[in-house]
Amino acid sequence: MSVTSVAKDPESLTMTVTVDLDATAERAWQLWADPRQFEQWWGPPGYPVTVVDHDLRAGGRIAFVMAGPEGERHDSTWDVVAADPPRYLELRDADVDDDGRPNDGNAMTAFIITFDERAGGGVVMAIRTHFDSLAGMEMVLASGVEEGMRMVLSQIDAVLAGAPA
Amino acid sequence: MVVAQASEAAVDRIFHALADGTRRDILALAVEGTYSVSALAKRYPMSFAAVQKHVAVLEGAGLITKEQRGRERLVHADVDTVQRARMILNGIEELWRGRVDRIDDLLATEKRTTGGRR
């Protein structure tokens, strides 16, 4: 398992996932920079992702569609805030809807991704996600993505069964 | 595993916070209404600093939040919100674990087909 730590801060609605990969920083960068690779890992099984716009430079945009098993369609558009290959990447939901909200209906989620090569080989990729509201976080989960929902439902069951918080 | 330790530590903090009678009492008050730290301190036969310390332990466990309003620090119980946020974050963590598994597969497949690291 490559996940070395997951730091969750419910007060500041922030989560940092730290991943140890047996690859160079350049190789890890390609997971984001190559749209065909990004399509292969972003969506869970049964939710194919198609990148429709991809300009990974500061000021650029990334747009993709995730299709669901029931024929539903989730659009996402990100603004590239900063891109310093292969070290630092900052993405933020673009407010592309008429109401100034992101088109995926989520909160204005921001990602900061850092890549640090280890002296002994391998790269540490840290993905920091910040949500601007609790409702937005729920939307991320509710958008047909079962991997996360299963976990939440089992926890709700545990809470209802009287398990300690 | 680091993750399990992290959530265990969070649970430990909650149990530790609730193990003390004064802290349970402060939490119960905070659930029912909004109190300033100084108003809480007047209710207990202990120093202001001691009450402040109890409040800090509850805050560290994520059971209450403090809000500065003027010269007062108000204590709110935020159990439901915090618990909800924690559960949602756990779900999103699962999403990322799935993504990282797929990244692992991607890199492993590539190594098998190219015979080495790129």
With strands numbered from the N-terminus, the spatial order across the biggest sheet of chain B is 1-3-2
Q: Note the run of SSEs of chain A as H and E.
A: EEHHEEEEEEHH
CATH topology of chain A: Alpha-D-Glucose-1,6-Bisphosphate, Chain A, domain 4
Please report which band the strand proportion of chain B falls in: under 5%, 5-15%, 15-25%, 25-35%, 35-45% or over 45%: 5-15%
Top-tier CATH class of chain A: Alpha Beta
Give the overall shape of chain B: elongated
Unreliable residue stretches of chain B: 1-6
Distance between the termini of chain B: 29 Å
The helix-and-strand class of chain A reads alpha+beta
Please give the count of helices of chain B. Answer: 5
Strand arrangement within the widest β-sheet of chain A reads 1-2-8-7-6-5-4-3
Q: How many structural units, i.e. domains of chain B?
A: 2
For the record, give the distance between the C-alpha atoms at the N and C termini of chain A, rounded to a whole number: 27 Å
Number of strands of chain A: 8
Helix proportion of residues of chain B, in percent?
over 70%
Give the CATH architecture of chain A.
2-Layer Sandwich
Task: Report on the architecture of this protein.
The complex is a heterodimer of chains A (165) and B (118). By secondary structure, chain A is of the alpha+beta class. Chain A has a single domain (3-7, 12-160), classed as Alpha-D-Glucose-1,6-Bisphosphate, Chain A, domain 4 (2-Layer Sandwich), CATH 3.30.530.20. Chain A has 4 helices and 8 strands; from the N terminus they run E-E-H-H-E-E-E-E-E-E-H-H. The longest helix of chain A has 15 residues, at 146-160. Chain A is globular, with a radius of gyration of 17 Å. Residues 143-147 and 149-165 of chain A have low confidence and may be disordered. By secondary structure, chain B is mainly α. Chain B has 5 helices and 3 strands; from the N terminus they run H-H-E-H-H-E-E-H. In chain B, strand 2 and strand 3 form a beta hairpin. Chain B is elongated, with a radius of gyration of 22 Å. The chains are: A alpha+beta (165), B mainly alpha (118). Chain A binds chain B through residues 1-8, 10-11, 13, 15, 17, 19, 21-24, 27, 31, 37, 40-42, 44, 127, 129, 134, 137-138, 140-141, 145, 147-152, 155-156, 159, 164-165, and chain B through 1-3, 6, 11, 14-15, 62, 65, 79, 81-100, 102-104, 106-107, 117-118.
